[in-house]
Each structure stands twice: as structure tokens, then as C-alpha cells.
Amino acid sequence: RDDRAELVILESELRRAIERNEIEVHYQPIASLADMNLAGFEALVRWNHPVLGLLAPESFLSLAEQTGMIKDIGRAVLNEAAHQLGIWQRSFPLPQPIFVAVNVSSVQVMETDLIDDVKQVLHREGVIRQTLKLEVTESLVMQYPERAQQILERFRELGVGLACDDFGTGYSSLSSLRKLPFDTLKVDRSFIAADAQDNRAEVILESIIAMGHALGLFIVAEGVESQDQVDRLGELACDFGQGYFIGRPLTAKQVS
Ligand code: C2E
Ligand code: MG
Ligand code: MG
Asked: 107 CA to middle of ligand 1, Å?
């Protein structure tokens, strides 16, 4: 990260990656914990680098945010994910249609016309109302509380779901829950990973779920890695689970 020269190379490579379609979207299943049925997916960006192979977002997203390239990457992920969602909903009609959740960074929310992009994509792909969801973290709200609130309110009116991602890891979670029109709360995996003997972690997890439910939110537990955790979360009436035990991120082809 400190190596300027390396950063410059990476930056130009990333620019080219967008043009060469090396940016891919993978989909991690999210299950309903009551019956372990598939409920939807989270769209996760990957860079299929010609030499380095498949790169996780942590290796390029902060650069993408600093340089503004996240705007193009984010738009590509949104378009791709909504396109796939439309295809899956038409190919596999279900009483409870599946959803896809797309991560958006604060740069995208504040510096692009995300509302217009979302409106267009919903119309073009014909996805069912409330099945496209956006995941935002609290840093967005921390930085631009009022504008963020206005924009998120518009998404709600458009019938787009809103999830508060990585809940419990930031500084302003509680005030953002009070002010913003979230319908889903994703509990950070650090609260799920703690072992069952850790009473304090258990109390916190239980309280987060109870609070979320009292606020009328769906709860998604992140980082579910064992049957034991599924059982424990089921006892706590947690709605959804996501994690390696339920399924790893898949390509669109693997999903179908
Ligand atoms: P996130 O939104 O919290 O996504 C969940 C991350 O946890 C994913 O990492 C996923 O692969 C990982 N994960 C899932 N199940 C497990 C598990 O059982 N155990 C463990 N240890 N990890 C698990 P990934 O794909 O590396 O993404 C990291 C972060 O990058 C995401 O965290 C999200 O904040 C961001 N991100 C991913 N795609 C996008 C995107 O298209 N746009 C933006 N702005 N951010 C993205
Ligand atoms: Mg997420
Ligand atoms: Mg998360």
C-alpha cells in the first residue's frame, strides 16, 4: 500500500480491467433459517486478474474508491446483478421470489446518480418489487447524515430493499437504525463466530436480534460456518443466514 509505483501499476491495470470485463460478480446464497430454503443472494465483486487470478474486493476496492473507479465498478455490479436476478426470477418462479443484495459504497451513493441507475435497471430487467436490495455500511451515514437519509428514503419509495451491513462494527449503528429506512439488519460475523461458551457475545447477539425484530427488521446473520451456529441462530429466531456452511460465493452459471 505504501509503494507508490506499485499503486500506479495497479491503478492502470484496474482501469483496463473494467474495459476488458475482468470484473465479475459472484453470488453467495442466503438461506431462511426456519427451513434452510434458499431466500436470495448477496452479489460480491471479484477481479479476475489475468496473472494473479481471482482477487477479493479487499485487494482493490479501497483503490477503486480513492480513484473514483468504484463508480464504474459499482454500476457494472448493479447492472449485472439485477440482470441475473431478472433471469432467475423468470426461470425459477417461486411463491416467495428470490432476492439479490448489492453492496454500494458511499462514493456511489453521494457522487453518482444512483437513484436514476437503479430506476433504469429495475425497469429494464423487470425484477419483482422489493427483491433488489442495497447494502450500505454506516460510514456513509456518518459522513453525510442528511443527504444519505434523503437518498435512502427515495430508494424505499422505489421498492428497493435496504440493509444495514456489518452491524455492530461501527460507531453510529444505533442512531442510523433510528433515522434510516432500513428493512434488514446484517449482523457482523464477529458476533456469530464467538463460541457458544462466550456468554457476553451471546447476550449481545440475542439483544441485537430482539432489537431488530422490535424495529420490524429482518435479521441476516453473516459468517455462518457450522450447523451448531445454524441451530443457535434458529433458537434466537434469526431470520436468515449467510456463510460458508450455507454456501460459498458462486458464479452465475453455478447458481443456475
Ligand atoms: P460484506 O458485504 O460483509 O460481504 C460478506 C463477506 O464475507 C464476503 O467477502 C464473503 O465472501 C465473506 N464471507 C461469507 N461467508 C463467510 C464465512 O462463513 N466466513 C468468513 N470468514 N467470511 C465469509 P468478500 O467477497 O471478500 O467481500 C468483502 C467486502 O467487500 C464485502 O463485505 C463488502 O463490504 C465489499 N464488497 C463486495 N462486493 C462489493 C461491491 O460490489 N461493491 C462494494 N461497494 N463493496 C463490495
Ligand atoms: Mg454486504
Ligand atoms: Mg457484511
From this structure: 18
Burial tier of 227 (Cβ tally within 10 Å: 0-12, 13-18, 19+): exposed
Give, for ligand 1, the residue of 18, 44, 45, 75 to mutate: max count of ligand atoms closer than 8 Å to Cβ: 44
The C-alpha atoms of residue 42 and residue 100 are separated, in whole angstroms, by 6
Classify 110 in phi/psi space as left (phi over 0), alpha (psi -120 to 50) or beta.
alpha
C-alpha 5 – ligand 2 centre gap (Å): 31
pTM of the model: 0.95
Contact between residue 137 and residue 131 where contact means Cβ atoms under 8 Å apart: no
CA-based radius of gyration for the chain: 18
Going from the Cα of 190 to the center of ligand 1, the distance in angstroms, rounded, reads 13
pLDDT tens digits, 243-255: 999 999 999 999 9
Contact between 240 and 31 (Cβ < 8 Å): yes
Position 167, amino acid: F
Which ligand is nearest the CA of 225, by number?
Answer: 1
Dig out the grid coordinates for 113 from the structure. 446518480
Ligand nearest to C-alpha 163:
2
Are 124 and 153 within 8 A, CB to CB? no
Position 96 scores a pLDDT of 93
Q: Are 119 and 165 in contact (CB under 8 A)?
A: no
Instruction: For residue 146, report the phi and psi dihedrals to the nearest 5 degrees.
Output: -75, -45
Atom of ligand 1 lying closest to residue 242 CA:
15
Q: Give the C-alpha separation, 136 to 164, whole Å.
A: 6
Report the C-alpha gap between 31 and 21 in whole angstroms: 30
